[in-house]
């Protein structure tokens, strides 16, 4: 009796037809859903004598496979027919098309490049996978400097920590690009090095394992700290407005001496004090200083003839100041709702 029912359903599903997608879905529900006719056969299967279970089980599987093939075939045929239908108006405009937007970090990076480009800086980009020699040693980092430690740097190959010449790593700053450029060029030169950098840090609203920097370097005869200050003041006023003030605070970096960190007057409260600037009226945006003579000599440049300055800033930091983005993770999560906010930013 059950075999006859299976054979009847097999003939039935083999002759199925449908005029549209809705009918195909109804057929699927009728035969293949949990409450469908094929699944209902399992209730009768439980009462089948043991010696017949194998034969009937094979027939039920055959029925289910055939029903699946027929229903999928109907769906595919309807899709093909719709795609080649003469009812499609090929003259209809393709608009409206959803337009994309440049990423906010790209917008800010391009603006930084444009500002310094108008002051004579040319672009240079080094490798993201670099070596200890260029990222640390040539930039006056001591052999036991904390930045060489695994907690800060992603080492790809580190066979012997004491032999720094064999260490391959993901660059932790774009200052290494300056070392690459200086060892192959003689002054005068004025370069800007934008790029992605990597550090072994826990990801949070205020930190990430990768971010973006822009480094600047100028080497020539008689370059002074005054030259550096004027360039940075021009940049700050171009980026944040003509009323922006700057201040330079003494600091320390292995590759510059003297070194400083630069603050700008808070562009939100105008220097009066607010929650964003912690009521100080100032916000730190970059580090800078005069290139250490050791760096020049390590790159084959005579430090008795040439001097230079360097500066570096985080692109995310500048973007935060311009757009007040409180969570760094938003820059890399690719949430289109966030990215759509910048369609009119360029």
Description of the structure:
The chain is α+β, with helices and mostly antiparallel strands and 346 residues long. It has two domains: 2-83, no CATH class; 105-342, 2-Layer Sandwich (BirA Bifunctional Protein, domain 2), CATH 3.30.930.10. Helices cover 36% and strands 20% of the residues. The protein has helices at 2-14, 21-32, 37-45, 53-83, 104-117, 132-135, 175-182, 225-240, 293-298, 315-323, 336-339, and strands at residues 122-123, 129-131, 155-157, 168-170, 189-198, 210-220, 246-253, 256-265, 282-291, 307-314. The strands form two sheets. A seven-stranded mixed beta sheet has the order 1-5-6-10-9-8-7, sandwiched between helices.
Main attributes?
346 residues, alpha+beta, BirA Bifunctional Protein, domain 2, 7-stranded mixed beta sheet, 3-stranded antiparallel beta sheet, 20% strand
Write the layout of secondary structure elements.
Blueprint: H1 2-14, H2 21-32, H3 37-45, H4 53-83, H5 104-117, E1 122-123, E2 129-131, H6 132-135, E3 155-157, E4 168-170, H7 175-182, E5 189-198, E6 210-220, H8 225-240, E7 246-253, E8 256-265, E9 282-291, H9 293-298, E10 307-314, H10 315-323, H11 336-339
Parallel strand pairs: 1-5
Antiparallel strand pairs: 2-4, 3-4, 5-6, 6-10, 7-8, 8-9, 9-10
Helix pairs in contact: 1-4, 2-4, 5-10
Could you say what the CATH architecture of the largest domain is? Answer: 2-Layer Sandwich
The gross shape turns out to be elongated
* Biggest sheet strand line-up: 1-5-6-10-9-8-7
Number-wise, the strands total 10
Q: Any idea what the CATH superfamily of the largest domain is called? A: Bira Bifunctional Protein, Domain 2
Largest sheet: 7 strands, mixed
